[in-house]
Amino acid sequence: MYRHLLIAVDGSLLSESAFKRALVFAKEMGATITLLRAIPEDHLLVYQAEMLGTTEGHHTDQARKNAQAYLDGLETEARHALVPCEAIVMVNDHPHEAIVETAQKSGCDLIVMGSHGRHGMTGFLLGSETQRVLARTRLPVLVYR
Question: What are φ and ψ of residue 144, in 5° steps?
Fold first, then answer.
């Protein structure tokens, strides 16, 4: 049985559904969960001209606060379900790297995530980030569709 699940969430309905299912799964097994929300680095070149007046890192700081608030809500749900939970926000332009790295560092034995982003033929069955996680980890990955 699994003892420690990493649940990757991005705020989408699919990832929230994966979280809710994984929460039930973790409770049934007596497992601990680690929630992860990966957010991109602040790249000022992609922002509109009126946004360039803000300090460097401002957008990342705000994104981090928003992500933490989102995770706080999920963490509360987990605690109400009596499932031990840790929530992590990681800044990384490549969510798959954040997922694999966090799973390894946290000692997780299962990664749970939703399938996403059906862009073109390469993403026909699974999203590109999901495919990258599957290719870069030796841990089992439970993908919710």
Answer: -95, 135
